[in-house]
Write a structure and sequence with these properties.
single chain; Spore Coat Polysaccharide Biosynthesis Protein SpsA, Chain A; alpha/beta; 239 residues; 40% helix
Length: 239
């Protein structure tokens, strides 16, 4: 299958890379929404990298005009796989349950033209509760502690490969680890628009319980725990 932009452009400006694993409940809606939320949908390609879904994810994707790749399981591996196939000058990593803001493509392009090599959007959840509003509010601040993969990530192609992409040792926390390296390399840009991300993990695990375990994982990483220990903790406490 071909990317959305290949109909009119051999070299799209933006490559949207989406890792999936059993995302039949979300991926179809996201793929349908991307061109509707973009200013110039012909200027980007969509690359979805499946890590071995056993539900209807791949069947849904076959009905859409996107590039569908397969790889081993693990978001770091999947996103690196997508990046190697991407043609765009800017790579945009997006979770299957996160919707970008209106005209997201133009916002990213303007940021890149202003010299920003990497950045993300602010975030809000698709559920209304003071707890979600409180933590989403912090996504406006340009500190590494306030970053996460749910906010999506855009990065200049050359910078991505100079940093050797995502560290595939990480089964979780791969976004935070990579963004930490970006912060040390260049100035990171937080765009003022909001992505809308799913609160499903909070519903499944409990709001306070999940936030506690996320904080523990952040602390473990800060104290130097290896990625295998982070994943072992996550596997024991978060579903």
């Amino acid at each position: 299958m071909t990317g959305a932009s290949t109909k009119s452009a051999s070299s799209p400006y933006l490559s949207i890379i989406i890792p999936v694993l059993n995302e039949e409940a979300h991926i179809g809606h996201l793929i349908e929404q991307l061109p509707l939320r973009a200013l110039k949908p012909k200027d980007f390609e969509i690359i979805v990298v499946d890590g071995g879904s056993t539900d209807g994810t791949t069947a849904i994707l076959k009905d859409h005009d996107i590039s569908l790749l397969t790889s081993g399981k693990g978001r770091a591996l999947q996103m690196n796989t997508g990046a190697r196939k991407a043609k765009g000058k800017i790579l945009y990593f997006l979770h299957a349950d996160t919707l970008p803001p209106r005209h997201f493509d133009e916002a990213i392009k303007q940021a890149a033209e202003q010299g920003h090599q990497a950045g993300c959007f602010r975030m809000r959840f698709n559920a209304y509760h003071w707890f979600f509003s409180f933590f989403a509010w912090f996504s406006r601040f340009n500190f590494l502690l306030c970053r996460g993969g749910d906010q999506s990530l855009f990065i200049n192609r050359e910078l991505f490969f100079s940093l050797q992409g995502f560290n595939q040792r990480y089964q979780i926390y791969e976004d935070n680890e990579f963004i930490g390296r970006i912060y040390r390399k260049t100035r990171f840009k937080v765009l003022p628009q909001n992505v809308i991300t799913s609160a499903r993990k909070y519903r499944d695990n409990g709001m306070f319980r999940l936030q506690y375990h996320f904080a523990r994982i952040h602390l473990m990483n800060y104290m130097g725990a290896p990625p295998e220990s982070l994943y072992a903790y996550y596997s024991r406490h978060i579903r």
